[in-house]
Amino acid sequence: MATSRNAMMKFLENKGCRVVGTTEEFSGSKGGIWLSGEEGDGLFNYYSESSKYNIGVLNTLQNAVEKKGWWFEWNDPGTIMCWTM
């Protein structure tokens, strides 16, 4: 079972992500978390081709998020969403 959205938002903030709001606030899509892809001290890099990143997300962060039942999806190079699986 996936971690609740509120708990996931706190988890992401504790990891250094800038949680902007919910996907409902961004686009009206229900259930996700809206994050800044431009902040987070190297957690996100949309353009990276380094093996440290998977789809522009630092591997350690992506693995931790997936273990909690969530995944990332880019909206644009500065905006990334986190969704429950």
What does this protein look like?
- With 85 residues, the protein is of the alpha+beta class.
- The chain has a single domain (5-84), classed as Alpha-Beta Complex (Hypothetical Protein Ta0175, Chain: A, domain 2).
- Helices cover 28% and strands 29% of the residues.
- It contains 3 helices and 6 strands, in the order αβαβββαββ.
- It has helices spanning 5-15, 23-26, 59-67, and strands spanning 19-22, 33-36, 53-54, 57-58, 70-76, 79-84.
- A 4-stranded antiparallel β-sheet has the order 1-2-6-5. Strands 3-4 form a two-stranded antiparallel ribbon.
- β3 (53-54) and β4 (57-58) form a beta hairpin.
- The longest helix has 11 residues, at 5-15.
- It is globular.
- It starts with a helix and ends with a strand.
- The model has no long low-confidence stretch (mean pLDDT 97).
CATH class descriptor name: Alpha Beta
The rounded distance between the terminal residues' Cα atoms is 9 Å
Give the SSE order as H and E letters.
Answer: HEHEEEHEE
Helix count?
3
Main sheet summary:
4 strands, antiparallel
